Amino acid sequence: MSVPTISTEELRELLDRGAGGGVTVLDVRPAAERAEWSIPGSLHVDAYDALRRGDPHALDGFQPSNGGRVVTVCGAGKTSRLAVEQLRARGFDAVSLEGGMRGWSLAWNTAEVLDSRSSARIVQVRRTGKGCLSYLIGSDGEAAVIDASLDPRVYVELAGRSSWRIRSVIETHVHADHLSRARALAAVTGATLFLPQTDRLSFEYAPLTEGNTVAVGAGHVRVLHTPGHTPESSCYLLDEAALFTGDTLFLEAVGRPDLEATPEEARTRAGLLHRSLQRLLELASGTAILPAHTSAPVAFDRQAIVGRLGEVRQRTELLRAGEAEFVEAILARIPRTPPNHHRIVALNEAGTLPEGDPTELEAGANRCAVA
Ligand SMILES: [Fe+2]
């Protein structure tokens, strides 16, 4: 029997309409896989093994929670088809998510960051299926994109909705857990590609150093070199009001200092990170903190993921430690390394994207934070 399917983009658009898109998303993966990452609002039945062995009762007891349509999801879109067959036999209008959670890693949504202290508007572009946050800043018909992690067409379309032209594409650092789309976006739009000055890159870019500014319409983005997560990591301060922190500072955590580093280098970087963070803490406590990642799937709720610097300081114990204590604490709490990070870094240093499907390399949650 041919099994009806739904694409990531179709499901993304449904969920983006609100009210759960009128569908029930049913995740049939093993609990351990679901614990790593899931679709916001989805239900879970740990039916993977039962479906694989052909147990006709694998989904007994399941009831849709939201409308009559059911979208089944698994890791790669195969076992979810078995779930569709069972549910259709029970009379449900069920479809399988094409490519499963791997394909879903490209799903996104947006939220406007409301900050009246800057003349520019900020749109947070959230790769919900992976936790990557990028930003579209617009003012006076011009726009800049920070940390592009999605297909260039997404940013071009979003900028077009506000009649902005993307003039600048800016990276906070060389990323290790997603493939940067910055160079591709700059190529498509003719925008200037800015990165913090580093000898790591084998392509042409406009180097940014401490104190440089990039104009976005009437707004100004000022560069703060904040080494630690990586040597070149930089934060960008928009109109003294909003700080794009990359992986240097999150809302309840700080960046990890160990990727592509020896143990001694990680220790040195942890010290640098402490100094960089202390410097950020000198900014106004009302500064909006806008990081490059979040550690949970992003809901389709149009609520920006943002915190005031004062709140972030309150919530993040590591920010209150002295340097020696900070270094020991952070090195003791390093999480597992992101999958494929050596290959991802190599591609990002070369400024290239792999042939074909990028989600194979990018699979898995991001792991750039230490809490
Ligand atoms: Fe990073």
Strand content: 15-25%
What is the molecular shape?
globular
Mean pLDDT across every amino acid position: 94
Biggest sheet overview: 7 strands, mixed
> Could you list the spans in which at least 5 consecutive residues all have pLDDT below 50?
none
* Distance N to C terminus: 48 Å
The total count of helices amounts to: 12
What structural class should be given to the helix and strand makeup? alpha/beta
Give the strand order of the largest sheet, numbering strands 1, 2, ... along the chain. Answer: 6-7-8-9-10-11-12
User: What small-molecule ligands were found?
Assistant: fe (ii) ion
- The Cα radius of gyration reads 21 Å
DSSP, total strands: 20
Textual characterization of the structure:
The chain is an alpha/beta fold. Helix content is 28%, strand content 24%. The protein has helices spanning 8-16, 31-36, 48-52, 79-89, 100-104, 152-161, 182-189, 263-280, 309-315, 323-332, 341-350, 359-362, and strands at 5-6, 23-27, 43-44, 69-73, 93-97, 109-113, 121-127, 132-139, 142-146, 165-170, 192-196, 206-208, 213-216, 219-225, 234-238, 242-246, 254-255, 288-291, 307-308, 369-370. Strands 6-7-8-9-10-11-12 form a seven-stranded mixed sheet, covered by helices on one side. A six-stranded mixed sheet has the order 13-14-15-16-18-19. Strands 1-5-4-2-3 form a five-stranded parallel sheet. Helix 6 (152-161) packs across helix 7 (182-189) and helix 8 (263-280) packs across helix 10 (323-332). The termini are far apart. The relative contact order is 0.12. The mean pLDDT is 94. The structure holds fe (ii) ion. Fe (ii) ion is lined by residues 173, 175-176, 229, 247, 368.
